[in-house]
Design brief:
alpha+beta; Arc Repressor Mutant, subunit A; 5 helices; 3 strands
Amino acid sequence: MTRGRYWRLRTFLHPVRLRLLILLAEKGEVNISGLAKAMRMHRSVAMRHLNELESIGLVRGRLRVIKGRKKGRFYKINEEAVKLLLQDALAMLMELEGRIVGV
């Protein structure tokens, strides 16, 4: 298993990040304040976890501007990236099973 694959899976499986992903999957696009409030955590903590998820491509953030005024950064889940990560996780488990059975 390569470090990149392991790191992406480890980042994904953190309990707080999983909760954030589930929340985004349920609500669609949400700003940091809305996510922090729903998760009952400080904005800085939510932001740190969102940055981790964004760094591996599982969420996308964008600045929303309405009538020329910034409304903040909004996040949404990258469904295709999550799907690919889950497929990769399954492949890793199958590789691991092959090593165990082959012992």
